[in-house]
Design a protein that fits this description.
- By secondary structure, the chain is an alpha+beta fold.
- Helix content is 42%, strand content 9%.
Length: 385
């Protein structure tokens, strides 16, 4: 969002970092505007509250093309992430009512997942460069919507669920930046207390903004409750927890485990899924956990996998069963980049997936070569960007 006079005041601390149109940091959060000249210069120039410049101000969404033809698919999905970051940056800066913007974003995301699920799954698994709190909420929304669509929930119910996912942590949004930098064992007593209280605080903020949708409120309130009563803040059991809250608890946990933090590498999706199925304690709804695994597949789009040939491939599409998705080999058995991606047929002894194998260059892949209107057009196109 561009810096305006309602966001910065003379003699007061700036509540966010300030960037120029190229994404360069100009002023750090907490800087005090010392004079009218400095304030005038800040307002006259094109400065923004996030590194994304004008790109974050709106989403150019074509409901007929599903956001995939007028601009690159990757650009569109990333624009959703950027827009969510903008919404929360504005909320933190001025306390504005974000519920309308969240509703618009939620509906776009539902529509996108109805028509382009594999690219959406792929980007949220592959791209983790965006702010941790923002990615976590978007991941939750993507995974929860997929399960709800598979389960044939009614439209209004899915809309409520998506809104809950995108506001689940509104009560501790600033704290999440701190939490992404520390290991769980290093949390202070104050941080632990804030974590346990954030569902209640999130609900209070949503009600203060005029949210009356009870399904939305209930899902946010109980998204850390567990089937066995070991959750928080109330320690509710089983049937007392709504299905929306149970599903949000599952996708929130899954997203947390596959997302990297500064002190911890991201988990492997297959290991995370296995943990849900073989857990000694029944903390999560098993039926919904299995629905998530069935929907994503054992090897979700956006995963990089080791093939029996020694090549490392990118999963681009879910298969009819979880073991045989569509893959393109990217790196050869020696780790070198192939001259052009090669689609591999799975299901034979010669070519099968051995395991998930994370590759350090995976986030640099030009995803528009694998998804959307340009998919498969590899000639004269950069594979890494």
């Amino acid at each position: 969002m561009r810096i305006t006079s309602d966001l910065v005041k003379l003699g007061t601390e700036i509540l966010f970092d300030v960037y120029d149109s190229r994404g360069k940091l100009v002023l750090r959060k907490g800087t005090v505007i010392p004079s009218q000249r400095h304030l005038t210069n800040l307002l006259d120039q094109k400065y923004y509250s996030t590194p994304y410049g004008e790109r974050g101000n709106s989403i150019d969404y074509d409901w007929d093309d599903h956001g995939s033809s007028s601009k690159s698919v990757a650009y569109f999905i990333e624009s959703l992430i950027i827009r969510l970051d903008e919404i929360y940056s504005n909320f933190m800066a001025s306390g504005y009512n974000l519920t309308g913007d969240i509703g618009e974003l939620a509906d776009i995301l539902i529509h996108q997942l109805q028509h382009e699920p594999d690219i959406t799954i792929g980007v949220v698994h592959l791209h983790t460069k965006f702010p941790y709190p923002v990615m976590r909420m978007l991941q939750s929304a993507v995974f929860a919507i997929l399960v709800a669509l598979r389960s044939e929930w009614k439209t209004k119910r899915i809309q409520s669920l998506a809104r809950a996912c995108l506001t689940q942590n509104i009560g501790m949004f600033p704290l999440q930046f701190e939490l992404s930098e520390v290991d769980g064992s290093e949390l202070s007593d104050s941080q632990r207390q804030q974590i346990r209280l954030h569902p209640k605080r999130s609900v209070s903020k949503l009600i203060a903004m005029g949210v009356k949708n009870q399904a939305w409120i209930d899902a946010v309130a109980a998204h850390h409750e567990k089937i066995d009563g070991s959750g928080y803040p109330l320690g509710c059991f089983g049937y007392k927890i709504s299905q929306e809250a149970r599903l949000l608890a599952i996708v929130d946990r899954y997203g947390s485990m596959i997302s990297p933090r500064s002190q911890r590498a991201s988990g492997v999706s297959t290991d995370v899924m296995r943990n849900f199925l073989v857990a000694k304690k029944v903390e999560y709804d098993m039926k919904l956990s299995k629905a998530l695994i069935s929907e994503l597949g054992i090897y979700p789009p956006g995963s990089t996998v080791l093939l029996s040939s020694g090549e490392v491939a990118l999963v681009t599409k879910r298969g009819k069963n979880g073991l045989h998705p569509e893959v393109f080999s990217i790196w050869d058995s020696n780790g070198g980049l192939l001259s052009s991606p090669q689609k591999r047929a799975l299901g034979t002894d010669e070519t099968r997936i051995l395991s998930i194998k994370k590759h350090e260059d995976a986030e640099r892949l030009n995803v528009d070569l694998f998804w959307g209107s340009s998919a498969g057009q590899f000639e004269n196109q950069p594979l890494l960007i």
